[in-house]
Amino acid sequence: APNSFRLLPHIKQWYQRRVRGQLHELYTFACGLYTLWAVTRISTLIYNWAIQGLSQFYAKIKEWILVLLKCVYFALTVFGLIPVLFGLLYEMILLLPLRVPLRHTPVLLLWQDWGLGVLFVKILYAGTLTGPDWHLKRVLEQVFQAGVMQMNIMFVTTELVLPVVVTQLHLLCIPYTFCSALPYLGFSEDFAHICHRRIYPGAVVILLIVILLKFQLKQFKRLYVKIKNEKYLIGTRLVNFDADALRTTFTQTES
Questions:
Q1: Could you tell me the pTM of the whole model?
Q2: Please, which residues have CB within 8 angstroms of residue 78's CB and are 6 or more apart in sequence?
Q3: Which are the contacts of 57, defined by CB distance < 8 A and separation ≥ 6?
């Protein structure tokens, strides 16, 4: 232990060479303790694995490398690619039409889009888990219940990452492809440029109208079924049932 504490001044000098300016002694002491604790912990862990044999040591190394690769893949897809696409959608739908004039060229900053996308991912995750039971909610619950150690990469890819990314790419690419094809259909470049800048909010408005119409149609169907059931008492008593005629027929058959 005394030899370990002798290393603290050397650690302080190393930190001062890496960081400009003077460091407070308390921060130096804390950084040195954390560094010594990390080195001691890693050395003890490696020693315990080495006692079990090289095969166990290599097995542990492979296991932790696999866990590290799973974490990297999950971070790059769920916390990297999906938030960037969400941020791009939000910027194309709302920010660019309000912030950039038609005659100006928009500049997309992926770091800002990623920050917006992370916020949207958190909101959608909370809304999905607190909402009704459906496919995405079951997938998210299964993924987070399994954890990093038991994570199934194929399940995460096929059930979570691919459906979300494909939907986002459809929402981004289909309007852009449609506007890019307008000059080849005889429309002017100015009209195609205006469509490029206004098609994303227009597509969202049309999509919301379609969803609202479908919702209202379902509500009208439910209202019609409810009125019909109340009028004909379906599910309450038999319709077109004559008890006296049935009793007469039964007595005649018995006689």
A1: 0.66
A2: 121, 156, 160, 161
A3: 46, 49, 50
Q: What is the pLDDT of residues 152-175, one digit of tens each?
A: 888 889 988 999 999 889 988 988
Residues whose CB falls within 8 Å of the CB of residue 31, separated by 6 or more in sequence, listed in order: 11, 12, 15, 23
Asked if 57 and 49 touch (Cβ cutoff 8 Å), the reply is yes
Three-state SS sequence of 166-192? HHHHHHHHHHHHHHHCCHHHCCCHHHH
Q: What is the pLDDT of residues 7-31, one digit of tens each?
A: 555 555 565 555 555 555 666 677 7
Q: SS3 sequence, 111-132?
A: HHHHHHHHHHHHHHHHHHHHCC
Q: Tokens for 218?
A: 């379902």
- 201 touches 97 (CB < 8 A): yes
